[in-house]
Amino acid sequence: MTGESFELPSGLSKRRKQFGAVPPPTPNTDSGKLETLEQRHTREQITDSEKLEEIVFLLKKISSTSTTVNLDNLINLLTNIEVILEEIKVSIEVAFPSASARTLYYDVASSNSTAVTTPLQLNDAQYTTEQVYEHIKQNAPRITACNDGPGMWYIRISHDGEQYSDEFPIYEGEYKIIYNIYEIKHRSTVAGMKYRITEFELGREKTTYFKSGRGYLRNMTVATGNAVPTVAYTTTNLHDVTTVLGQNSTTGYLKNLDALNTIFFWISHDGTEFGQGGAGLGVEYGRINPNGMTNFDYLDIHSIRVGADVNNVDYELFLG
To answer: Which candidate in 86, 108, 260, 282 could, as Cys together with 230 as Cys, close a disulfide (CB 3.0–4.6 Å)?
Structure first.
């Protein structure tokens, strides 16, 4: 510390005001040397919140004198901030040892073998149970639960193993982040539905990223196509997204899964008029080349029709 003493601004704790935000160093009675910042904090029994007040004050000091401050003083101020932050870090690690010394994490990727289509009583054996606390010897602070499909996934969570939430859905292709988890009970409406329950971050490509909320996901085939879009329009697959989601979609993607043929698509904002702007009914909004994909962003989609230039062309559509 330097020998300067600065007056505290109003609003800081009264106990800090009697010392000043950055008081001058005091000689150590044992050695006669100037005490360190850590020694002063120990002597004055400074709390973490008061240490944060000191950091704020030091930052203001740097900001207000940045054009004139002596380089040595600037380095000294920054060093003091670093020391204070390290003290706070150590106190947190002492108070919460499990947060800094964990060796076990919950990470499961599996599938439900049985379809259960109706809600269950809490202790029903048809629930699959994830015993998080039993495995990692503490609650999981943050878990990602991901439904990789097919089908709906219903989950109940507990923070203490005694009280459980009501069931809530995780839609096919969706993931939810849940907190402070002791145990999870879950069921799926389709046998073989794959899921992941993990404390680790999930790496997700852009086409999957759109599934981060409740969405409309379909893998389908255009059974009858035609090379002329206005003719292909008459045999398209209609996706009424708003009826399913309860609102228009704003984002998603359409992926052509065929390696040889083209798909066409028509978008409607009201479920009645389909087409490209004011070009007229039946004029395709766009087309996607073999193995290509189009992302939809902020398009306010009520419904979408998908056709193809030939018969039996596969595609994947997600809207959310």
So the answer is: 282
